């Protein structure tokens, strides 16, 4: 019998709040998964938008092929064969528990249970959703072998958690206390399965900006937790209104939040770094569409069946690599269509692999005509620019500037040129990294693209 797969996806879950020095939450469940499995320290998602990220994860293909623009949102390209279908063709049953907005519920066709949807505004782990998931895991309604995909909104802003966790012992700030509350349910999920016959994946669709800074060992939050519940209640009431009205409401709310923040900062006499400014003043809904690590570096844990224990992998991997690796672990041939993802199994054996560049692309949020951005991340550099030449070029040295505060594009034109070639190669599905391997016509095309951007 092949192993079951429990795929836990926590919306907008930050990489640095799952593992590492910044994390102060109390997470015995997550910690046990890492101890009994693998922590991927540089896992990069391909989009800051949930449906785009899902589409790429389920197909192993980057957004420019896996997603189709549908109005102001996206739909998965169902002309591509997805991994859920491959699993079902090999005897698996596919189940899900996912929120109900149209851009996520579109994925219901990939799963077979009728009770998969829950309210994005009302249902959280602590008020019934957690018990529903435990009941499903403990029941015989999941026919083995199964894959159970669970996407949770508890970690998505606005920050809201049970009052029982509002204490320093659960974290130095509201976000970490929220993670502590979520972890209690992860622990219960793990108690409901046989880890020896189950592969557990814990990851996120994307990250988020956190309005939290630290001064003299104390964390100061600008997330205004007291407004979280009223915001959810208003959202529940207004979400069926025409989109322009909803967008106007959100924009007004963000403007008011920023005004409150500016006044508060002035009173406190706090001077912010570039990193802190975007953490406090930016949201994923901003039109500038920047592709910083706060949004694209996500947690990734594999644990359970055939997974080595207590292993930390620092090599860069991507969300499009997850399912190719899962299928390899359980002995199923991968997709026939050309994919961008690779099998990470050599890393699981302690072997080295060539680090592939990670492609990234922004989604659509508040603006009907956003400044769409695309770019790549290598272990050394982050490079991104506007898809339609709308944004200036960004280049960051991740080794010397991990917080991406200093744009060195003007100082490093040779690196910009190299990164642009990699980007264009990926868009063409060639993913050629070495400059000398590029054909002459590709060199000319890249040079012309940079000239259009006003860079050469």
What's the topology here?
Layout: E1 4-10, H1 28-35, E2 37-44, H2 50-59, H3 63-66, E3 67-70, E4 73-76, H4 83-89, E5 93-99, H5 102-105, E6 117-118, H6 129-138, E7 146-152, H7 174-191, E8 198-203, E9 212-215, E10 218-221, H8 228-238, H9 243-268, H10 274-281, H11 293-296, E11 297-298, E12 300-304, E13 311-318, H12 322-329, H13 345-348, E14 358-361, E15 373-377, E16 381-386, E17 394-397, H14 413-427, H15 440-452
Parallel strand pairs: 1-7, 1-8, 2-13, 5-6, 5-7
Antiparallel strand pairs: 2-11, 2-12, 3-4, 8-12, 9-10, 14-15, 15-16, 16-17
Helix pairs in contact: 14-15
Q: What is the H level of CATH, i.e. the homologous superfamily of the largest domain? A: Alkaline Phosphatase, subunit A
Q: Mean pLDDT score, rounded?
A: 87
Low-confidence stretches: 430-440
Number of domains: 3
Provide the CATH topology of the largest domain: Alkaline Phosphatase, subunit A
Give the count of helical stretches: 15
The radius of gyration over CA amounts to 22 Å
How many strands, what sense, and barrel or not for the largest sheet? 9 strands, mixed
Share of helical residues: 25-40%
The total beta strand count reads 17
CATH class of the largest domain reads Alpha Beta
Write the CATH architecture name of the largest domain: 3-Layer(aba) Sandwich
Gap between N and C termini: 59 Å
Strand composition percent: 15-25%
